C-alpha cells in the first residue's frame, strides 16, 4: 500500500493532476480573499453610515432639548437684570453666578482666592437681598420658569 502511494506520486500524470488542483486551490483562495475584502468594505461603509446617523441624532436632540444660543443670551441678560433689581454689588453678582453654576462655597472661595468665611458672608447677603432662604431656593428661582408646567 505504501509502495502504491509512492508509485502514484512518481507518475507524470499525478504531477499534472496535482498542478491542476493547486490551481483550483489558488483560485478559491483568491475568491475567498476578494469576498473578505468586500465584506470588510461593506461593514466599514455600514459603520460609517451608522456613525453619521448617530451624529445627526445627537445634533437633533441638542436642538430640541437645549436652549439656543440666542435664548441663552436672553436668559443670561434677564438674570443680570434681576441681579441689578436686587442691587447686588459686582462681587455679589460674580458669586451669584457661581452659585447658579452649582459651585460650592469652598469652590467659590478657591476660585476667588478668599476665605470660606468671606464667601459665606457674601452668599448670606445674596440670599437676604433676593428674599431667598438658601442656595436651592436661589437656583430654583431662575430655573423654574424654564421647566414645563406641571399637570
TrEMBL record:
Domain HTH luxR-type: 89-142
Taxonomy, superkingdom: Bacteria
Record flagged with keyword Amino-acid biosynthesis: no
Residues passing through the membrane, by range: 24-41
Molecular function via GO: DNA binding
UniProt keyword annotations, A-Z: Membrane, Transmembrane, Transmembrane helix
InterPro entries: Sig_transdc_resp-reg_C-effctor, Tscrpt_reg_LuxR_C, WH-like_DNA-bd_sf
Gene Ontology annotations of biological process type: regulation of DNA-templated transcription
Protein name: LuxR family transcriptional regulator
Species this protein is from: Leptospira stimsonii
Amino acid at each position: 500500500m505504501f509502495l502504491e502511494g509512492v508509485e502514484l506520486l512518481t507518475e507524470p500524470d499525478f504531477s499534472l493532476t496535482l498542478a491542476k488542483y493547486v490551481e483550483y486551490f489558488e483560485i478559491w483562495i483568491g475568491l475567498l480573499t476578494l469576498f473578505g475584502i468586500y465584506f470588510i468594505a461593506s461593514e466599514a461603509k455600514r459603520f460609517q453610515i451608522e456613525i453619521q446617523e448617530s451624529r445627526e441624532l445627537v445634533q437633533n436632540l441638542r436642538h430640541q432639548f437645549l436652549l439656543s444660543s440666542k435664548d441663552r443670551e436672553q436668559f443670561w441678560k434677564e438674570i443680570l437684570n434681576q441681579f441689578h433689581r436686587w442691587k447686588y454689588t459686582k462681587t455679589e453678582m460674580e458669586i451669584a453666578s457661581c452659585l447658579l453654576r452649582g459651585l460650592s462655597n469652598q469652590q467659590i472661595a478657591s476660585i476667588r482666592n478668599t476665605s470660606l468665611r468671606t464667601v459665606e458672608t457674601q452668599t448670606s447677603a445674596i440670599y437676604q437681598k433676593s428674599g431667598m432662604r438658601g442656595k436651592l431656593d436661589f437656583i430654583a428661582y431662575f430655573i423654574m420658569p424654564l421647566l414645563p408646567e406641571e399637570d
